[in-house]
Amino acid sequence: MLYLIGIGLCNEKNLTLEAVEAVKNCDEVFLEGYTSVLQCKKEDLEKIIGKKINSADRNLVESNALIQKAKEKNIALLIIGDVFSATTHITLFLEAKKQNVEVRVIHNASILTAIGITGLDLYKFGRTASVPFHKTDYPIEVLKQNQQLGLHTLFLLDLDPKNDRFLTIAEACDYLTKKGISPETKALGCARIGCPDYKIVYAELNKLRSIDFGKPPYCLIIPGKLHFVEEETLSFYEIK
Amino acid sequence: MLYLIGIGLCNEKNLTLEAVEAVKNCDEVFLEGYTSVLQCKKEDLEKIIGKKINSADRNLVESNALIQKAKEKNIALLIIGDVFSATTHITLFLEAKKQNVEVRVIHNASILTAIGITGLDLYKFGRTASVPFHKTDYPIEVLKQNQQLGLHTLFLLDLDPKNDRFLTIAEACDYLTKKGISPETKALGCARIGCPDYKIVYAELNKLRSIDFGKPPYCLIIPGKLHFVEEETLSFYEIK
Question: Which residues contact B88 (CB under 8 A, 6 or more apart)?
Fold first, then answer.
């Protein structure tokens, strides 16, 4: 059996009771650490589950190795956030199904809904885009399409935890303005959403770029057309 | 302090360790039971947290009562799914902020990302719509807009747990076809996503309407333009 287990956004205490129970039942436990970054140490997770956790890089997860193991044993792959919030894990799920390996998915919080704390209506988000280190026009296309429809746009900022590189909110602001988005556009900079020390600031791109957001992960939201409740909630995060 | 605590999609084991810890710290605990429906009994939750849980209907949550209490004591409101996945709770959060009541949000899994298990890319969903008991054209407008852009559409089917009424997938299919959506349109019917006994079927609306999905909650997804990995995953749920 292959367990795909979402572990939430912040630390070892975001594990669900079901996740802890499932992991106790597993022969080997892996942690996927390349699509996001945890705010706790691997050791903190190990303490809670009482098992050694192996790091799984992209090569391992995208190879056939975990599925082969899961034919004989109970294998858990811990995934930061919710299991399918990073698109890459559906391939593993699909491959397991193809090879008749039973898969159990245990869900958890995802950045895609945790951003509801900004006050923006989650039903009124358009497409989501990553802003990658290597700049492309794709995020701009997504933004323009969403803006035309009055929808909110979530940008997830790229990360490379292995090399301790994180695209910053300042870099994302600069990227957008260089691509022709007005520096007076108001946006939400968000860091560590889902953690007790999360930070959200609402300001124009040219002001947002000089705010210190502390540690990653980061995202940036450009609101679309605002309802008055959304507007009022945003005002609590606003810096003028 | 007011704790807004997401409790996930299925049962008492979806509570996070952080949620259990927070609730233990609370003087009164309420459960919001009108925006979704749990697959476990209130008693099962009470056993895990070791406290009595009071039911909170819409009137209570939308009144000032919880905020008043939270000025003096630690109050927890348990919310099915993630805290802000139903738009209504942002108003409580906002009101607490206005009245200078400290709010702590504890996130959990939401239907909005748990549907990633269908194989559909969560980044390519357009606006989400509820299909209410009282039929309006709004869901159709949302669908058409998303379809034009090739985006996926999630419909959450209305529910009234107090009166044990749940809009069924058959009713939603009939609603769509009566509003002019072709009965040959392929859609995903989903029940109890997030539970071990979840059910997903991919078929034309006219076939989907006669499938027995078992217990609620339900949602319906009309896919947009499909990537081949999405297509391949959908085929595992397909009934022809």
Answer: B35, B58, B61, B62
